[in-house]
Design a protein that fits this description.
The chain is mainly alpha-helical. 65% of the residues lie in helices and 2% in strands.
């Protein structure tokens, strides 16, 4: 067994260096991207923030757009507000964990994993969920160690679960996991706190669905609920790929074109999962660690089965981030018990790998933003509501132009009607790129 024990002074220096490097990587991750690390869902989030209190999007809760909206009052636009949220989410995680002495070293390494660096730099709600997931684990820890009363435990657990549901609907799975953990331990003093809190969270989601979603979008379920979207073999393959990349500490995206490199990417992920299972079985788990693992695994299982009836993206590192972070925490705690300070090397290796990937695939968001801003100003539509034409939802690279536009003017809607292209305010990829020179990444 190899282990390195650092004295407190050297360890703190190492931690400080790791934190600074992670901050730099989060910023580089979106600055060295052609679009600033956004996707089609990001358009909806920023547009919702921009036009609030008008509601035009119920496919996602209001929590994340309202956080973006809040920071726009300080004079920054929706895009930069979303990036600030990611950086502040990372900051809060470390500050809270350090002050409460709760998985600080483990969270330091988990947050430095390239997959989580990508989450903090992404204009997506997952970054905002992570602080609240850690708060959930902390409150559970207080309950399990009898450091809070049953009433207080139920209140705080329920409150955090409700907040999470207001950020991501998939937080409903956390409610299921919380209830299951309580039922498994029904003979212990704390079981009611978890069962009641989980039920309250589930009940809130029911009310939210009937009082908010149905009010603004009565066809929500008809649009998104569809049985038999994908076959079981397809879903199982996607599950394998999603888990193997999510639990690869170095590379979280496989080559979409296939190839031998993917065997290495999936192989490292599978070996990591096997190591996790081995350590979790062979070492003694605390009650808090059991809670984290049970809830996280339940959420991953639910994420798989929901695909049979609900139209969602294939499982990947982003969708699993709120559920995988707990597993990483427990895993790194076990590694610290075995290898001590040598465990920090994983964080530096993943950051090195992430920097290499980011540099090799670098774009230039700031330059592209400048060009797209000039284009919108020349067309007198910088502050106008815009439509962007796509042939279909599977139009591939065409949507990337709309994504870039949304970082300057988020009031952009997608249309699939060819006749709309005759209107001046309806843009197409050809119209935009005919007048601009957008530099693109070598890899996405």
């Amino acid at each position: 067994m190899i282990s390195i024990k650092l004295n407190e002074k050297y360890e703190k220096t190492l931690q400080f260096l790791l934190i600074i490097t992670t901050y730099v990587m989060i910023i580089l991750r979106f600055l060295l991207n052609e679009k600033g690390r956004i996707n089609p869902d990001s358009i909806r989030y920023m547009r919702q923030s921009e036009i609030f209190p008008i509601i035009d999007n119920t496919t996602a809760p209001l929590g994340y757009p309202l956080f973006i909206k809040f920071f726009t009052y300080f004079g920054i636009d929706d895009f930069w507000s979303s990036k600030l949220i990611g950086i502040l989410a990372y900051t809060f995680l470390l500050f809270f964990a350090y002050k409460k002495r709760f998985f600080f070293k483990e969270l330091l390494i988990s947050s430095a994993l390239f997959s989580f660096v990508s989450i903090f730099s992404f204009t997506m709600a997952e970054a905002l969920t992570l602080p609240f997931v850690i708060l959930l684990f902390y409150v559970a820890n207080q309950i399990l160690n009898n450091k809070t009363s049953t009433k207080s435990g139920i209140f705080y657990l329920s409150f955090i679960l409700i907040l999470l549901i207001n950020i991501r609907y998939s937080a409903l799975f956390l409610c299921f996991g919380t209830v299951l953990f309580g039922l498994i331990n029904y003979k212990k003093f704390y079981w009611k706190s978890f069962v009641i809190s989980g039920i309250i969270g589930i009940g809130f989601y029911g009310l939210y669905k009937f009082l908010f979603i149905d009010y603004f979008n009565e066809n929500y379920l008809d649009t998104f609920l569809e049985i038999g979207l994908k076959s079981t073999p397809t879903l199982l393959l996607e599950l394998f790929q999603g888990l193997a990349t999510s639990f690869n500490p170095f590379i979280h995206i496989a080559d979409p074109n296939g190839g031998i490199v993917n065997y290495g990417i999936y192989g490292i992920g599978v070996l990591t999962i096997i190591t996790m299972v081995f350590l979790f079985i062979k070492t003694k788990l605390t009650e808090t660690e059991k809670f984290i693992l049970i809830v996280s695994i339940v959420c991953i299982v639910c994420s798989y089965f929901i695909q049979y009836v609900y139209s969602v993206n294939a499982i990947d590192y982003r969708l699993l981030a709120p559920f995988s972070i707990g597993i990483w925490l427990v895993f790194f705690r076990k590694l610290f018990q075995v290898f001590d300070s040598l465990t920090y090397s994983i964080a530096f290796l993943t950051l090195m790998t992430g920097f290499a990937f980011t540099w090799l695939s670098k774009g230039n968001y700031l330059e592209n933003r400048k060009m797209i801003t000039e284009f919108l100003e020349n067309e007198n539509i910088k502050d106008e509501t815009i439509k962007f034409y796509l042939k279909s939802e599977e139009s591939g690279d065409d949507i990337q132009t709309a994504e870039l536009i949304s970082t300057v003017n988020p009031k952009i809607y997608v249309t699939f009607q060819p006749k709309d292209t005759l209107q001046k305010k309806v843009l197409t990829k050809h119209k935009v790129e005919n007048k601009t020179r957008i530099k693109k990444n070598n890899y996405q």
